[in-house]
Structure formats: C-alpha cells, structure tokens
Write a structure and sequence with these properties.
4 strands, alpha+beta, 7 helices, four-stranded antiparallel beta sheet, 20% strand, single chain, 140 residues, Alpha-Beta Plaits, binds adenosine-3',5'-cyclic-monophosphate, 39% helix
Length: 140
C-alpha cells in the first residue's frame, strides 16, 4: 500500500460543538497523521467553488449555506491508503446509514451537518488539497 494524502474538513456542526479534538483523536487512532491544519471561515464563493461538482444537486444551496454558517477546520491527513482509510473512518454520508464505530455515526447531526468531509479519490484529494493549502503549509 502506498502512503497517500487526503483532504479533510471538520464542518461547522463539529466546530460549533467543540469536537475538533475528539474527531482528530479518531484520525490519529487509525494511523492518519494530521500534516496540515487550519481553522478558517469559508465564504459563499469558496464554499460554492469547493462543492461546484454538486452545483446541479437539489441540496447545493443549503450545503453552501451550511458550510459558511461557522468556522471549519481544513486538514491534510497522511497515511497508508489514506483516501480509502479516511472514508472508512468517516462512515456513510448519511449518519443513519453509518457503521457504529465511525465518526459520522458517533458525531453527525444529519446528512447535511455530517461533521466531516473527506476526498473520494486520490485525484480529487490532490485537487482539494491544492484548493486550501500551499505545499509549504504541509509538514509531514
Ligand atoms: P460531503 O462528503 O461533504 O460531500 C457533499 C455533501 O453534501 C455531503 O457530504 C453532505 O453533507 C451534503 N448533502 C446534503 N444533502 C445530501 C444528500 N441528499 N445526498 C448527499 N449529500 C448531501
């Protein structure tokens, strides 16, 4: 297996409930290393651009509104098979369908306020990491 990097976002429902440390502990327990991290406020333009792939979906406007409703923590996670591993650790998008040990089963409030985002492929991970981080901000 190869060492990969993936983009993670702790969403506004997680920062509002002061869950940054608890969620980060889950990543680290599963061998994912946080090699970059910053707490930022997304704007309508940045949230809209980040989720542009969902522009035609009925939930797009609500998703953008939610993502700008409070600070987020954007992160780069590094580890063996990091893209797939993070998706396992996060659980299904809809917390009602997520396995019990996952972050979304434990912490998410709804399919929209689902606490975390993680890249869904290695190619998207590269693009999503570059969206938020300069190479000099990533410190393995
Ligand atoms: P995320 O992994 O960040 O990618 C897109 C987000 O859209 C997703 O998590 C959900 O939080 C949000 N979303 C809201 N409604 C839906 C829906 N019906 N289906 C899929 N994603 C949704």
């Amino acid at each position: 297996m190869a060492v990969e990097r993936t983009l993670s976002i702790l969403k506004p429902d997680a920062t509002r409930r002061n869950l940054t440390g608890k969620i980060n502990a889950v990543f680290e327990e599963h061998g994912l290393r946080i090699v970059a991290q910053k707490r930022i406020q997304l704007t309508p333009a940045t949230a809209g651009a980040f989720y542009a792939v969902h522009k035609e979906r009925p939930f797009y406007n609500d998703l953008v509104s939610f993502m700008i409703s409070g600070p987020v923590v954007v992160q780069v996670l590094e580890g063996e098979n990091a893209v797939a591993k993070n998706r396992d650790v996060m659980g299904a998008t809809d917390p009602k369908k997520a396995e019990a040990h996952t972050i979304r089963a434990k912490f998410a409030e709804s399919i929209e306020a689902n606490s975390v985002h993680g890249s869904d492929s290695l190619e998207n991970a590269k693009n999503e990491i570059a969206f938020f981080f300069a190479g000099t901000e990533i410190l393995p």
